[in-house]
Design goal:
Layout: H1 5-53
Amino acid sequence: MSKHWFWFLTTAACVVWYSTITIYVAIKGGADIKHMLARLDATRIREQEEERRG
C-alpha cells in the first residue's frame, strides 16, 4: 500500500464524500416526502368537507 497511497486517499475521500451526500439527500428527501404527504392529506380532508357541504 505504500506505493499506492495517492489512490488509496483518493478512493477514501470519494467514499466519504459519496456517503455524506447519500445520507444528506436521504434525510432531506424524507423530510420533503413527509411534508408532501401532510399537504396531500390536508387537501383530501378539505375536499371531503367541501363535498359534505355542497
